[in-house]
Every structure is written in structure tokens, then in C-alpha cells.
Amino acid sequence: MEVKVLGGAREVGRSAFLVRGNTTRILLDFGVLIHKTPAFPIHIQRKDVDAVLLSHAHLDHSGAIPLLFFTSGVKVYATDLTFDLTKLLIEDFLKVSGFYLPFEYIELINMMRNTININYNERFKVGEFEITFLEAGHIAGGASIIIENGGKRLLYTGDLNVHETQLLRGAVTEFGELDFVITESTYALTDHPPRKDVEREFVNFAKEVVERGGTLLVPAFAVGRSQEIACVLKSANFPYRIAMDGMALKVNDIHLNHPEYLRDPNLLRKSLEDIEFISSWSERRRIAKTPSVIISPAGMLGGGAAVFYNSEVAKNSKNAIAIVSYQVADTPGRTLLDKGLALVNGKLKKVKAEIKRFDFSSHSGRTDLFKMFEKIKGNPKIITIHGDERACVNFAEELKERFGLDAIAPKPGDTFIV
Ligand SMILES: [Zn+2]
Ligand SMILES: [Zn+2]
Asked: For the whole model, what pTM was predicted?
């Protein structure tokens, strides 16, 4: 097999890897780099691809797939839940960034007509390749992917989290003998604090804010993080009002339609029973002034109802904002976190509300990643991707030093023989 890196090299975004055998050519993910203007992987012609294997719904893995559907299109393989979430995310992407996108809704529809649902742990064939999806723990429906061909085995980790969370089971990391690994490196340099501590601190903070008569805004990604926060509050028997708004509500329903992907579907169901769903501006104005917790996308405050809540909650020192999602540089969420500034009545102003960050990551941390490679069987060549430059380069160097593995942080366009 030959692996060509089309994107996701020394960056988090536009993950895309072309795997070629003698007769079969498949893409592992085909994502976008979310920026002011979205950026795409290295160009590839539709005729040079036989199929796409999609690890999970996030746009940095799925957002460029409609580009392959201008004419006939290819088959796309993923879990059924991944397809439901991908459709929702790309629809929203078209709404928010449509002006910058080289495809339209019709290409998304074509793509959704060419989906093939895959279950975890079921081996299937695409051309000469035998493929298995393994549960990845990162978001619901997400997978790591194993490709076998001619006696060689390749692992693509996708994005993964080995620890179980309130919402999800942890990743499966029994990969067997491997010859080649494409590994995510997001937190190769950083460990996360113990999850239980983060949960406890978050719930205590939420109580404190409501008890002093304040409103706590929790800007959260619609997919996964909003539901996780709801479950964290429920499992701690949080006694006060909780509201949820925006695209998270659709994602709730999608999750509940696929309970088999959840660690404890009843926990999510019960969490949501207690929550007020907000859908009108009068409700929004009311709840923003009510002592409560408001969970609302967008997680980086780039859009959605969270923008309104943020401008309201920011005005009063009794209130608070809990940052529970990763904040990319140059986003309103990053500005809030680093400088304490937010848009209030159209002007960038110092925020009076308390701002606190909680590390609810859905990626394996540094120690977990090294533990995973300690366990790995065989003597695989490794490429480190899906991390910033330092993370990818250092991770590869450390894998070489610690385990004597042939590891490298590739550049876009690099090819490797398996
Ligand atoms: Zn992801
Ligand atoms: Zn990703």
C-alpha cells in the first residue's frame, strides 16, 4: 500500500489521507481547516478515489467530502450515527460559511445518497482492502480504522479518547499487529487533569454562581460537549435550573435515536428530561436573566445563541462563563479567555462576569497516547498528524527515542510505502 498525506500535517484541520493499493484507492477522511475562510486538503480528482472511509462527523474530518459529489460521486463508509451528525454539521457549515464553499446543498444531498453504514468490529471489503472500524471514544459514532491488504495492517486512529466519559465508552485499543500507524497528536505534549476532578470543580462552580443569584453560560460544541455537560450536571444531582439552546437540541435527538453508541443512554435521557429547551427570543431574554445554567453552542462563541447569551451574561459580575471547549486562536471564545473581552451591544468590552476554564477534552492526553504505543504490537512505521507543528514533531521524536519506532511528522504531499 501507499499512503499520501493530503492534509492534517502539522495542523488540526483538513485531515485527509489517500491509501492506494494495486487496484483500490480510498480516502481516510476528507476534512476542512476551519478558519476565517475554510481551507481544503491537497486537490484530488474524483476519478482517483474509489471510496471514502469517514472516522467521525467533525468538519475537520468530513467537511470536504461533498467536493467529491459534483458528478457521480463515490461510496462513503461510516457509522449511521456519524452520517446523521455529519449531515447536520455540513448543513450548518453551508449556512454559516456557504459564501466561501466550493460546493452547495445539492452536493451534500448526493453524498448522503451514497452512504454505507458500518458497525464497529465488523470486517468488510472495499476492493482489495479489508476494513474494520473500532470504537474511538472521541464523539458518538466515531471510529479508528484498520485497513488490511496483502498481509500488511494499517491503523488510522482518527480522533480518539481512551477514557470513558459520562456520555461515551473509552476507545478500543486492541489493534493487533501493525505495520503502519497514522496517529492523532492533538495532546501529545499535554496531559489532562483527572476527569472526576474537572467534573467536581465544574459542578461546584455552577452551584456557586447560581447560589449568588447569577447565570452561568456554558458555551459548548453542539455535538458531544453539550450532552456531556448535561450528563455531568445530572450525575452530580445538580439542583438548579438548566437550559439548553441551539443546534445542541437537534444533536440530543440524534444521540437518543442511536442509544447503542452511548455509555449510559438512560443518563442522557434523564439529564434531558430536567432541562428547559429554549427556542424563542422571549425565552432567551428571560433565561439570560434567571439564576441558572445555560448550555448553548457555538462552543467558541463564533455564532449561535451563545453569542446573545454571552453579551447579556457579560454585563453582571454575579454571572459567569464556563469555557468547556477548546478555543482556536482568533475566535471570540479565545479573546474572551485570554483578554476577558466580549461583544456587548456591538462593542468589544471588558466582561464583568467571572470567566473560568474547564478541561473537558475528548482527546487522549499525552500519557494515554504513550501508553497506547507502549502496548502496540509489531514494529510499525508511524506518522504523527492532527496536532500543531510542535506536537506532531516532538511526538514523532519521542516515539523514536522511547520505543525505537520509525516515526515522522509528515508534511502535506508526503507519501509512504506500507
Ligand atoms: Zn474530532
Ligand atoms: Zn479532528
From this structure: 0.96
